[in-house]
Amino acid sequence: MVASSQGGMNIHIHTHTHTHTYLPTYIHTQLNSPTLLQGPVMVGSSQGGMNIEDVAAEHPDAIVRMPIDIVDGLDTDTALKMADKMEFSRNLQPQAAEQMVRLYNLFVAKDASMIEINPMAEDATGTIYCMDAKFNFDDNAEYRQKDVFAMRDWSQEDSREMEAANFNLNYIHLDSDIGCI
Hints:
The protein has helices at 52-58, 76-85, 93-109, 146-149, 159-165, and strands at 21-30, 39-45, 63-67, 112-122, 128-130, 133-137, 172-173, 179-180. By secondary structure, it is of the alpha+beta class. The chain folds into two domains: 21-150, D-amino Acid Aminotransferase, Chain A, domain 1 (2-Layer Sandwich), CATH 3.30.470; 154-181, no CATH class. Strands 1, 2, 3, 4, 5 and 6 form a six-stranded antiparallel sheet that branches. It has a two-stranded antiparallel ribbon with strand order 7-8. The longest helix has 17 residues, at 93-109. The chain starts with 20 loop residues before the first strand and ends with a strand. InterPro entries: ATP-grasp_succ-CoA_synth-type (IPR013650).
């Protein structure tokens, strides 16, 4: 599917609505960043009701970044620290951390380059759910992830990418009338 040119584990979280907490979650691999370790990174914000890119532009101090050790993966202690920094209530932090660990394990197991959950929501009973999701996978992992790539929805992709794929090529559209094959 579409491979992210960026990288790291990003969790974008917006919290604190009246009866529910909605937590958009975005995960991808952070690779060529001068400010972060090369590898997975969780990024989030407790600023609610805003797109994470808007939060980063308007309130850069509100963004929390937590690198994940590429060898050890995301452990419960690190996920609990992130849940705390994301301002989950104390009683929901273990549940939020468990969801983060599960998402990271899925991210690794399926060769994802990005996972976006929007929203991750807390219902009125205090249960956290991962709701609507968008996944991108590393095209180079297609031979390992045949079941995943069998679900590819070409209607969601550029027709030129589909045409290139028919010839085992990757096509990346760039601005203007330039393309990269």
